[in-house]
Amino acid sequence: MIWLIIAVVVGLVFAPAMWLRPSPRQQRTMRLRDASVQAGIQVRLDPSPLHQDAERLPAYRWAYPPQRPGPDFMLVRDAEASTALKPFVAGWRWRKEPLRPLPETVRRHFEALLATLPGDAVAVESGHDALVLWWDESMEVEAFMPLADDMAELREGLAGRPDRPEAHVGPRAPRA
């Protein structure tokens, strides 16, 4: 009888510790975020880019070099977008289209990349500072890293193509 009481007490002591242990999904997400940060990707939980959504979503950010800013655009998955938005490729619509057309090679790469994104990717955004993937982190590290490399390649193709070039700073060159 005393052994039964000891077992119950030990169980009561260790039960809260088991509840604090990360779930398998949390462990996978931690591994994914750690590997992403080591690869130079900024990972943040930001307010969702979707309308009428107060939730915070993971935003994986590939920063543009400061001297080569990127264009401004946002693509949203069809399931999250209004049919009034202009289609880009099957399954994706422009919420905000870049002012200048993308070069053909960059456009083809972008279209191929969109076809490989996981189903929980809801938006791809670009701004002056970074190319951003909004998603729910459904992939394992091994499956995500090739996608991360493709996103980095797209960032390189988009870098230096800002919609609004900065005003010239510093002394102007004399006119000839």
TrEMBL record:
<protein>
    <recommendedName>
        <fullName>Preprotein translocase subunit YajC</fullName>
    </recommendedName>
</protein>
